Amino acid sequence: MINKFSYNQPFKLESGVVLPELEIAYHSAGTFDPLKNNVVWVCHALTANSDVFDWWSGIVGKGKLYDPEHYYIICANVLGSCYGTTGPLSVNPTTQQTYFHGFPAITIRDMVNAHELLRTHLGIEHIHTAIGGSLGGQQAMEWAILQPSLIDNLILIATNAQHSPWGIGFNESQRLAIAADSTWKENNAEAGLAGMKAARSMALLSYRHYDAYNQTQSEIDINKTDNFKVSSYQSYQGDKLVNRFNAFSYWSLSKTMDSHNVGRGKGRVEVALSKIESKTLVIGISSDLLFPPAEQKFLAEHISGAEYIEIDSFFGHDGFLIEDQQLTNVIHNFYTVQV
């Protein structure tokens, strides 16, 4: 069940802009142990939501790696998204108008500071495990840097310490597609949706891999010259996002990912990573084109005592959402070694 936490005070962003108030949507399951030492905080990726029991059902749920019978599991929807937390389609209480294009820039640190408000509200003083893939991993990492003694176990999957020019290039190309939509400048929730459909099609190419497309989208008919299977697949994936998201949040969150750099204000990325005290597992995916394994190896090299494991998958970056059994085995072994 989705829950709401309302923070009826000003919330200052890293940019200096102040949100007059903040609402955070979150899902939770399970119960605290007597000392509240069984908290698992899942940080979600770009277009996901707080219902981790839905989109990561192979990892979280009854009988799974993170079973609510043993853990108190929480996932909070991020700032800028469209699933209940304050975002571009929220009403600015100062103006009584929807933010739309006026929604301020959000950084990963802003997202983490919002998590901090919710954590305090829930009376959580300690986190057994913070885990996330992609944008979720960026959040978990930043949190472990900002609060070194808070998190016992940090699990970073298919993520990085700073977003790469390659990744920013993909995001900018997607925003160009949105901006090319003639409706994008309008102040209504439907603005930019055709552009976002094209943007999602672009994104999918970075999330998957050449081999995955050969496995799933190859044609049997060698005489075909049009209406290819993959063409309808790209269109279908774009429509799926259009049916559940909006272009304003997509634009905002892609900008958030671009801004990710744990070294900002700390001199160097390596200095920031050295502040992490959590027992850390870093997981890379062999075929990841968007967050290549070199980025995870860099994390493991500069986080003290971190362990690096690479899983083999032809699903590319999306492997962190698909390879449930491999992830379960790797994470289980990580915990077992500590015992």
Automatic annotation (TrEMBL):
Keyword Cytoplasm: yes
Transmembrane domains' residue ranges: none
Residues noted as binding substrate in the record, renumbered to the chain: 200, 318
Gene Ontology process terms (BP): homoserine metabolic process; methionine biosynthetic process
Function: Transfers an acetyl group from acetyl-CoA to L-homoserine, forming acetyl-L-homoserine.
Protein name: Homoserine O-acetyltransferase
Source organism per UniProt: Solitalea koreensis
Catalytic residues of the enzyme: 134, 288, 317
Similarity field: Belongs to the AB hydrolase superfamily. MetX family.
Subcellular location, record wording: Cytoplasm
NCBIfam families per record: homoserO_Ac_trn (TIGR01392)
Any one Gene Ontology molecular-function term assigned to this protein's record: homoserine O-acetyltransferase activity
Upper taxonomic lineage: Bacteria, Pseudomonadati, Bacteroidota, Sphingobacteriia, Sphingobacteriales
Quaternary state and interactors: Homodimer.
Catalytic activity line of the entry: L-homoserine + acetyl-CoA = O-acetyl-L-homoserine + CoA
Primary residence: cytoplasm
Domain of life the protein comes from: Bacteria
Key words of the record: Acyltransferase, Amino-acid biosynthesis, Cytoplasm, Methionine biosynthesis, Transferase
EC number: 2.3.1.31
Domain AB hydrolase-1: 39-313
Pfam annotation, one family: Abhydrolase_1
An example Gene Ontology CC term for this record: cytoplasm
